[in-house]
């Protein structure tokens, strides 16, 4: 995949390999993302989407290649260092704190951005996610799956990240919550948030993403605009079961 672009990418992944113990999952994978863009990371179940996200976040340590954020190398750093550098990871299994209230789940994630500012405050999160405000004293473990997904996104935003990684945010949710999550991502995109969105569902990404990377067996097999992917029947049929 070529990574030539007129703008300087805020996130650039070049030729990374990733392993679970001795089992290799990613094979020279590359992608890049400009500030304010949404990149869809697409592929079938088991293609390597979550491993790509975890590699960027430092949870899975890559053995070679480069991952840079705003031109600074972050591959090899610990997850908390990468989070402080500006990467927010919303995992597929959400990982909220079930014994803490909604508000405490949000407050525990407060962090200033790289410029020392706080664009995202508790008040702004409640404005963006009005569903959470009446639940603010409820324990995280008492929330529905959709409510927990909203909470994890809000928690990520409280860290004022440069890039937010959303790993299958629509997975397992009722259709009405899938719609709400889509609307939330659309609003974040309009606000200029830089997003990597891992999904199996191409239809969900249409209208949300600017570009797409398709992964198959741990390799990037397509990079282009979301419209180019939508028109590419060969890629869709071979790698996305569309």
Automatic annotation (TrEMBL):
What protein family is recorded? Belongs to the ABC transporter superfamily.
CDD domains the UniProt entry points to: ABC_TM1139_LivF_branched
- MF-aspect GO terms: ATP binding; ATP hydrolysis activity; branched-chain amino acid transmembrane transporter activity
In terms of Pfam families, this protein maps to: ABC_tran
Instruction: Name the UniProt key words of this record, in alphabetical order.
Output: Amino-acid transport, ATP-binding, Cell membrane, Membrane, Nucleotide-binding, Transport
Q: Where is the ABC transporter domain?
A: 11-242
Kindly indicate whether the keyword Transport belongs to this entry.
Answer: yes
The taxonomic lineage of its organism, from the top, reads: Bacteria, Pseudomonadati, Pseudomonadota, Betaproteobacteria, Burkholderiales
Q: Where does the source fall among the domains of life?
A: Bacteria
Q: What is this protein called?
A: ABC transporter ATP-binding protein
Q: Which GO terms describe its biological process?
A: L-amino acid transport
């Amino acid at each position: 995949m070529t990574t030539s672009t007129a703008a300087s990418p805020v996130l650039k992944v070049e030729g990374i390999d990733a392993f679970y113990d001795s089992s290799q999952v990613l094979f020279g994978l590359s992608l890049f993302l400009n500030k304010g863009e949404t990149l869809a990371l697409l592929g079938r179940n088991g293609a390597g989407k979550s491993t790509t996200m975890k590699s960027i976040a430092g949870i899975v340590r890559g053995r070679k290649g480069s991952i840079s954020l705003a031109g600074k190398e972050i591959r090899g750093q610990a997850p908390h260092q990468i989070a402080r550098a500006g990467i927010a990871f919303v995992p597929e299994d959400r990982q909220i704190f079930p014994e803490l209230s909604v508000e405490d789940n949000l407050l525990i994630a407060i962090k200033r951005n790289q410029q020392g500012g706080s664009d995202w405050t508790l008040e702004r999160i409640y404005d963006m996610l009005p569903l959470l405000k009446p639940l603010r004293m409820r324990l995280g473990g008492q929330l529905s799956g959709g409510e927990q997904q909203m909470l994890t996104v809000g928690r990520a935003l409280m860290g004022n990240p440069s890039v937010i990684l959303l790993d299958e945010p629509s997975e397992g949710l009722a259709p009405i919550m899938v719609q709400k999550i889509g609307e939330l991502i659309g609003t974040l995109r309009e606000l200029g948030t830089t997003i990597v969105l891992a999904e199996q569902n191409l239809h969900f990404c249409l209208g949300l993403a600017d570009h797409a990377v398709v992964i198959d067996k741990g390799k990037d097999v397509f990079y282009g605009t979301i419209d180019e992917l939508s028109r590419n029947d060969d890629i869709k049929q071979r790698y996305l079961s569309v």
